[in-house]
Design a protein that fits this description.
The complex is a heterodimer.
Chain A: H1 3-56, H2 61-71, H3 75-91, H4 94-106, H5 110-116, H6 122-135, H7 141-144, H8 153-174, H9 184-196, E1 200-202, H10 203-210, H11 215-227, E2 229-231
Parallel strand pairs in A: 1-2
Helix pairs in contact in A: 1-2, 1-4, 3-4, 3-6, 5-6, 6-8, 8-9, 9-11, 10-11
Chain B: E1 6-11, H1 15-27, E2 31-36, H2 39-48, E3 53-57, H3 65-74, E4 79-83, H4 88-96, E5 101-104, H5 109-126
Parallel strand pairs in B: 1-2, 1-3, 3-4, 4-5
Helix pairs in contact in B: 2-3
The chains are: A mainly alpha, B alpha/beta.
């Protein structure tokens, strides 16, 4: 066997060993991923049980809160909690909405959502906007307003909707000069929100919207003149 | 209905909502609750047993609640549909297909229980 052949055989051995190592690496990381997800799913179920107890048994609120405090350890726990509370508040009204919102407020989770508004990942920013539009209040429009200039289209669109959702007429006025180009989808979403919840708008504000430099805003104001309550 | 115990099937694909709604229904002493996660499972339940009430989310995976209304009516089981499409046509369609009640999202679980009790009360009065 020549030295060239020997080198070739060594190379084949090296490639085979490398291949085996890669396969072992994939198997280990995959099983780690599956185990992690399985464990986390178990933790999420515990969180669901705690939330259900707080929501269904207001007399056990103290116990539920202390269980929740013990449960919340990592950043991911907080993220999952905010996600679950958003889902509850989006689907429920009345006492169940109030109790979900109370958890969000009592655990000061708005800071978590506000922090995520500055995330580098656009989908995380959209999530945070939705959280604030479902669980936040009118005061959060000031946190969302700067996002009207965000480089990502999805963020800008969600920001417009959220500002009207939580700020109603006031929100609309705050972004009158900043709204930019509005897609049909955004326009219809805004109309749906405004039609769903009656709100008051001053005659001066309505005039301002009607004379806006933005054509979409002028179009929107024609609808508002018909449907919103105008007061002096 | 056994000794005034009402057997309810709750069909909801969202795990969290299913848990909260099931726990809420379980607060009522005379309610016995079974849960299903999709339309096919609900269909299998309907074919196998008889129940006093079905509470189903409209858009269940594989088969919607609307598709199962006919089967529920054949077995004389009232169905409450929960939907987030607050369109008049949708509500009218549900009632025309024989839904016992329609709940629009966002909704109150307490209201859902009150509506279920109302259906049971009417059933007891008519028997």
């Amino acid at each position: 066997m020549s030295s060239g052949d020997q080198i070739l055989i060594y190379c084949i051995y090296a490639i085979l060993i490398l291949l085996i190592l890669v396969i072992i690496g994939i198997v280990i990381s995959r099983s780690h991923f599956i185990l992690y997800n399985k464990n986390y799913h178990r933790r999420e179920k515990t969180l669901q049980s705690i939330l259900s107890m707080i929501l269904n048994h207001p007399d056990k609120k103290k116990t539920g809160y202390s269980k929740l405090k013990k449960f919340l350890k990592s950043d991911k726990d907080y993220r999952v909690l905010v996600d679950l509370l958003t889902s509850l508040s989006y689907n429920f009204s009345g006492e169940y909405f109030k109790r979900s919102k109370a958890i969000y407020d009592d655990f000061q989770l708005e800071h978590y959502s506000i922090k995520n508004l500055g995330s580098t990942s656009w989908d995380r920013v959209v999530e945070a906007i939705i959280e604030l539009s479902v669980l936040g209040t009118e005061k959060h429009t000031k946190n969302i307003l700067p996002l009207l200039d965000h480089h990502n289209f999805h963020v800008r669109r969600q920001a417009k909707i959220a500002i009207v959702e939580i700020g109603k007429g006031k929100g609309l006025m705050q972004m009158e000069h900043k709204i930019g180009v509005m897609s049909s989808w955004t326009y219809i979403s805004l109309l749906a929100i405004l039609h769903r919840t009656p709100f008051k708008l001053g005659a001066n504000d309505l005039d301002k919207l009607q004379n806006s430099k933005n054509p979409s805003m002028r179009k929107l104001s024609a609808h508002l003149r018909r449907f919103s309550v105008v007061y002096e | 209905m056994e000794n005034n115990t009402f057997h309810i099937v709750l069909a909801e694909h969202n795990e969290l909502l299913r848990k909260v709604l099931k726990d809420r229904l379980n607060i009522e002493e005379n309610f016995k609750i079974s849960t299903v996660v999709d339309g096919l499972e609900l269909q299998a339940y309907l074919l196998e047993n008889s129940y006093d009430l079905i509470i189903a989310e409209e858009l269940l995976p594989f088969k919607s609640a609307f598709e199962l209304l006919k089967l529920a009516n054949e077995k004389n089981i009232p169905m409450i549909i929960i939907s987030d499409a607050d369109l008049e046509e949708k509500i009218l369609e549900a009632f025309s297909l024989g839904a016992a009640d329609f709940i629009d999202k966002p909704f109150s679980p307490n209201e859902m229980v009150a509506r279920a009790k109302n259906i049971f009360r009417k059933r007891l009065q008519s028997t």
